[in-house]
Amino acid sequence: MQHATVDPGSIGEDPSILELERVGADMLGKEAAIFLPTCSVANLLALMTLGERGTQAILDSNAHIVLHEAFGIAYVCGLMARLVDSGSGPLDSDAVERAIAHAKALNLPRTTIVCLENSHMASGGTVIDPLWTRLVSETAHRHGARVHLDGARIFNSAAALGVEARDLAAPADAVAVSLNKGLGAPYGALLLGSSEVIQVARVNASRLGVSSIHQAGMLAAAGLVALRTMTHRLADDNRRAAMLASALNTQASQLVDVQPAETNIVIVRVKSRTMTAETLTQELARLGVLAKPRPNGNVRFVIHSLISDADVGRTVEALASVLARDGRLQGAIKRTRTKGRAVPRGKGVPTVRNDSSGKVSRDPE
């Protein structure tokens, strides 16, 4: 970044940005790319570019675009989101076919864009294989709709499947890729597609105010390092996530349910009656482990380049410590219950101190 070539001139002249866009397009098998601040902006630009205002966009109800991007799909793009309940994973071709047919039967707006996500974050980093993407894309294209792939973590999916990222992106008309996430760059994303698609996307980028990132050669240089050196190590992140999930299933299955880890995300559902996802993450933070509570009561752990095998071990130890204390608390509460009647507060029901000692004290009331 320090030695990056930075061109202070007009838009489209910075050599580092031009090289990043060229390298990214080659890796994803697309004709062109545009460098953008975030993957959410890239998704928004794809919706603006591929979709048509006043028409329908089909997405699964747990898509990142739906849950975490402030519904810009409607507010900015003027698209009617048709949300399909796909269970715990991404859309399939049959669901897309039914959604399109239902809209036609009710004389609803026609479908102009179908969105997929790979890996699928809300379901715990679930991978979509190339055949799945191709079948959905063929269905969409047959009905005159185009396909956008939210590939924020597409390189993690490619590592999990042992394929090239371009194989996963090939059927889509546009694909968004984050340079942060597992790739570790401090900034940026790419939107990739045909030359025609990216040309229109650049116009839409001007409308959003993100077409020119001045003096951005140093940021593009970090993106180049991410693409050239970080994609090959993502299998280690996936492996460590699997280690974490396996260890938790072995040591804490009575208090948490752990989803199998396909990529670098581990989703844990807290089964405790006395601990929520929020309190679990707070307790873990006191022990130096950062995780994120989810709105549905789950906790998300994400493995990245700064997490080692030893860190996974320490995470398991921290979780075991917190959950063991919770287990003792539940056991103590259970022992105080007699003939279905709980002992009133003030009669010595144990509670865990709000500190890092892990000791159990009597309720002061």
Q: Can you offer a commentary on this structure?
A:
The protein is an alpha/beta fold. It folds into two domains: 15-228, 3-Layer(aba) Sandwich (Aspartate Aminotransferase, domain 2), CATH 3.40.640; 234-339 and 347-362, Aspartate Aminotransferase, domain 1 (Alpha-Beta Complex), CATH 3.90.1150. It is 43% helix and 16% strand. It contains 13 helices and 13 strands. The chain has helices at residues 15-28, 39-50, 64-67, 72-75, 93-105, 130-142, 154-161, 165-169, 195-208, 217-230, 234-251, 277-286, 309-336, and strands at residues 32-36, 56-60, 80-84, 111-117, 146-150, 174-178, 189-193, 256-258, 265-270, 292-293, 298-302, 350-352, 360-362. It has a seven-stranded mixed sheet, with helices on both faces. It has a four-stranded antiparallel sheet with strand order 8-9-11-10. A hairpin with a 6-residue loop joins strand 8 (256-258) and strand 9 (265-270). Helix 2 (39-50) crosses helix 9. The radius of gyration is 24 Å and the shape is globular.
Features:
alpha/beta; Aspartate Aminotransferase, domain 2; Aspartate Aminotransferase, domain 1; seven-stranded mixed β-sheet; four-stranded antiparallel β-sheet; 13 helices; globular
